[in-house]
Structure formats: C-alpha cells, structure tokens
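ok, trying the design again with the full structure, not the truncated one.
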C-alpha cells in the first residue's frame, strides 16, 4: 500500500503537465485574440484609382458579362480556419474584392470544406470585376445576389 501513493502522485503530475500545453495551445489558436493577420485577405492597395472602402460589393452567382464597361481583376479564393456559416465566406470574398478595387464578385460559390484547426469551415471562390456602368451593375443583381 505505501507504494500506491507515489504512483498516484506521479500519475496526477503527468496529467497536469501534459494537460498544460493543450490549454496553452487553445489560447494561441483563438481567432479573437490572435495577433497575426488574415492570410486570405489581399492587402489594400493605395492610390487614387482604388474604389472607396465604404462601398458595398455585389456577390452574385451570375456569369461574367460577355461585353460592357468592366475590368476583370482576378480570381478569388477564400478559406476561413474557424467554423461559421457560409455568410462568413461571402464577407471574406467581399473583403478580398475590395482589396483588389472590385465592386462585383461574379460566379461566386460558397461551401463548407475541410479546415484546420476546425473540422469544417466556410470557403468560397469567385471572379472579382470592376463594373464602371451602373446599369450593367444593376443587371447583375439576381435572386442569389447579396450586397456585402
């Protein structure tokens, strides 16, 4: 019996020591207290040609227009490392599009996909375009469109 007490103390000590790094890791992985930036958002360009950041971006499933007064700025792909709804992916698409100077994301798709450290998280893709004609911009608004 006297040897059972040291064995129990060693087991308790081992559980406390191994449990401490796991608790510290969860603090480091908390997105609200993290000090690093979002790697999926393009840095905002500087200059007079950049659209104002307070404008909203149209996120639509519509296809890229065949012709008109617009400029294709590039493909977008966003991925959140944390759980959430697909609305979060739409917001990330809008942030990245604003960073490129776009006012519309066409052919937008959002889904839940595998992620780390979360099991699944919102992801999305689309094409950022800058539409200069307001009538053409309004023609892109459809049933699956949202302003972000």
């Amino acid at each position: 019996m006297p040897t059972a007490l040291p064995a129990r103390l060693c087991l308790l000590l081992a559980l406390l020591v191994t449990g401490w790094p796991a608790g510290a890791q969860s603090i480091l992985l908390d997105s609200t207290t993290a000090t690093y930036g979002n790697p999926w958002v393009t840095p905002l360009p500087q200059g007079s040609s950049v659209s104002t950041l307070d404008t909203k971006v149209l996120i639509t499933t519509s296809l890229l227009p065949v012709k008109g007064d617009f400029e294709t700025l590039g493909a977008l792909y966003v991925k959140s490392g944390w759980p959430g709804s697909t609305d979060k992916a739409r917001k990330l698409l809008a942030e990245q599009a604003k960073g490129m100077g776009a006012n519309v994301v066409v052919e937008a798709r959002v889904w839940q996909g595998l992620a780390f450290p979360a099991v699944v998280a919102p992801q999305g893709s689309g094409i950022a375009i800058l539409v200069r004609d307001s009538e053409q911009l309004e023609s892109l608004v459809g049933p699956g469109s949202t302003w972000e």
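Keeping the full-length input from now on. Residues 1-30 form one domain.
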